[in-house]
Amino acid sequence: MKRYNEEFVYKYLDQSLSTKELKEFKEALENSPELREMVTDARNAHQAFSENSMEQAPEKFSDQVMNRVKTSSSMNYYRPSGLFSNSGFLLVSGVLTALVALLSVINGGYIDVQSISTSAIEMEMVTDNALWHTLTRENVIANAMLVLYGILGLVVLDRFVFHPFFLGRVKQVGLR
Amino acid sequence: MHTTIDDNQLVSQIKAGKVEAFKKLVDRYQDYVFTVCYRILGNREDAEEVAQDSFVKVYKGLSNFQGQAKFTTWMYRIAMNTAISYRRKKKITLESLEDFKKFDQGEIRDMAEYQKLEQKKYLQIALNTLLPDDVSVLTLFYLKELSLEEMSDITGTNVSTLKVKLFRARKRLANALKRILKQEVSSLI
User: I need a labelling partner for A28 at 20 to 30 A (CA). Which of A127, A163, B82, B169 fits?
Assistant: First the structure.
């Protein structure tokens, strides 16, 4: 009689024996107490796992996961399209705009290379000039308008050029 | 397991900013991920924490998910690796027979339910004696959702090695279960 090893026993449990093999195996099973014990042991474990293959997640598990996801910093990555795109362009433009605004304020609202390079004494003399004050006030408004137009321009560029481009890349690369 | 909206469609929605689409994925696979973690870690508290960690990792990693593998294959790999590294790093307490006995005092409605609970109890105790790699392979196999090729993707082993690993793991489980049942019987006599 053919001797059966444990590998054959698992094939039997998985029902992957051919009809001929199955018939021979069943005959051997009837005649061999050793083989029967082998099958019983393997079947116990197989049945226990098959019947308990799935555990149930605790209640409100998905809500807890969503809370953690929503508080995680990575949330920003999948922000909806719009003004806050994920291209990072707004961040750069924001920093640049803030720098321009800061320079305008430091320089009394007038960005002029000549005035920046002026020494402290010269600056004192210039600030005494009433005409300079008038010019500065006018330039504050002009520069503020410039900054606003700049921001608007950057937003339009980001919304209609950069964002669609990056989103297109994400779709192309990530979800093919 | 298969529903109207395909996993990849949900992934696209999440990437487009629809966070709630992720909840659908969690609802769909929470039992599977929890099962993988529970089997490897051997207790429900740690399994819950690690299963949550796994889903957060899945969410964070979606930007790198190329869609070349099945979403589930990728997700199981994350869950399995998270659970195994958690088990290695932390000294976790595997539920012992005594722990299970504490829960036995609850109300059991009928004999079938009692037998089912007993079977579940001994299975988990036997699993707790095995190595995490063996438990992972067995868990994936008995989920009955994955082909051997998918399982080999998840575990990072080729199919023929996986078959050998699976066979050995099943054998070890059968032996462990036999030993535990023998101990139980002798303690009753």
Answer: B169
